[in-house]
Amino acid sequence: MNPGVAMGFQETFKALSDPVRRDILVMLKKGKKSAGEIGEKFDMTGATISYHLSILKKADLVKESRFKNFVYYDLNTSIFEEIMLWFGQFEKEHNKGEEENGK
């Protein structure tokens, strides 16, 4: 695996380690949301929401777009596909071992 990808995963897993950020990602699964819409779902300051969004952006899990005076956040699905492929390599190895052992 290329070292750049491994370094990216380090940021990804750090971002995913926080339950608030995981909740934000689940919210974004339904489509783009503004920071204000995201903030309405949590009992925390706008600055705290911005901090969580910046961690998610740094990990490339979300992307932002601007429309008029609003910034919208959306999932970066290509990163999730990359993560699933990476995790998938372990399943394949596991199944391969079972086949070789006659299971």
Account of the 3D structure:
- This protein has 103 residues and is an alpha+beta fold.
- The chain contains five helices and three strands, in the order ααβααββα.
- Strands 1-3-2 form a three-stranded antiparallel beta sheet.
Furnish the topology, listing elements before pairings.
Layout: H1 3-16, H2 19-28, E1 33-34, H3 35-39, H4 46-58, E2 62-67, E3 70-75, H5 77-100
Antiparallel strand pairs: 1-3, 2-3
Helix pairs in contact: 1-4
User: What is the global morphology?
Assistant: globular
Quaternary form = single chain
Major pleated sheet: 3 strands, antiparallel
Radius of gyration: 17 Å
- What's the β-strand tally? 3
* Structural class estimated from helices and strands: alpha+beta
**Quick check: average pLDDT?**
84
Q: Element order, helices and strands?
A: HHEHHEEH
Strand content: 5-15%
Strand order of the largest sheet: 1-3-2
Distance between the termini: 29 Å
Helix content: 55-70%
The total count of helices amounts to 5
Low-confidence stretches: 1-6
In short:
This protein is α+β, with helices and mostly antiparallel strands. 64% of the residues lie in helices and 14% in strands.
Main attributes of the structure:
103 residues; three-stranded antiparallel beta sheet; single chain; 64% helix; 14% strand; alpha+beta
